[in-house]
Amino acid sequence: MFLKGLKDKFKYKSGLKYLKEELNSPPEVIERPKGITSVGIIVDLDTFDHAESFYDFVEEFQLRPNAVKIIGYKGYYDKNSPYSTPVFSDKDLGWNGNIENSYALEFLSREYDLLVNYYTQDNLMMQLMTIKTKARINVGFSAVDRSFNDLILEADLQDYKTFKNELKKYLQVMNEIAK
User: Fold this and answer.
1) What is the pLDDT of residues 124-137, one digit of tens each?
2) Cβ burial, residue 153 (10 Å; 0-12/13-18/19+)
3) Which domains does the chain have, with CATH numbers?
4) Fewer CB atoms inside 10 A, N or C side of the chain?
């Protein structure tokens, strides 16, 4: 038991080191045409449990039905319990910032035009997912370190409707979606 705790602590430290190195290196440029055709969403299911609300983006932004991919973070989850959203947790942290979760790896294998970071806590796993996801535009909340997001919205995490309306407004201003 003691060795597992020590191992987890070292994994966490190696993950933090990886995160700092990635934040200090120049961001990878994603060559995708202007316009929103695919959306990735990282949501904190411990504080916001209506992840299925994000499927509204399909109608709101006039996207294909399968254009929205959602992955949720839970501090702890039971692998035998059914979740409507694919889930990852702290126990999926590997060495050097690697994520050892099949749902997370499938999410990371895609490229997105828009990545929505729907969380307000500084959490290593969610930040690693943000850094590792290939997206042209990252959107999130001001409570999180500003270096993770290109567009920062001031809204309450529980007020999804305001967040969605503000996001749509800014994407229209940026000519990413039609008015």
Assistant:
1) 999 999 999 999 99
2) middle
3) 2-173 (3.40.50)
4) N
